[in-house]
Amino acid sequence: MSWMHDGWHMAWMGLARVLGIAFLIAIGWWLGRASASSAAPPPAEHESPEQILKRRYARGEIDRQEYERMLEEIRRG
């Protein structure tokens, strides 16, 4: 009798294939998550209101008139 004829080798091969695919998916998920989290650094915790306003103006979120108006409000307190 040969142990190859009982069918268990097929079950182990199938299990190994499923585990291998799961491992590859986990590695891909981990790499995707690692690259996404390092894409843009978070803003500094202690940015002043003027720094935040300056950053928004530099990104084009606000125009010059709005920048100057808001800057004046910040400086007035």
Task: Describe it.
There is one protein chain. The protein is mostly helical and 77 residues long. It has two domains: 41 residues; 36 residues, no CATH class. The protein is 70% helix and 0% strand. The chain has three helices and no strands. α2 packs antiparallel against α3. The longest helix is centred in the first third of the chain and has 30 residues. It is rod-shaped and about 85 Å long. The relative contact order is 0.06.
What topology emerges from the helices and strands here?
Elements: H1 8-37, H2 49-59, H3 64-76
Helix pairs in contact: 2-3
Mean pLDDT: 85
* Most strands sheet: none
Q: Characterize the overall form.
A: rod-shaped
Q: What integer value in Å does the Rg equal?
A: 29 Å
Keywords:
77 residues, mainly alpha, 2 domains, 3 helices
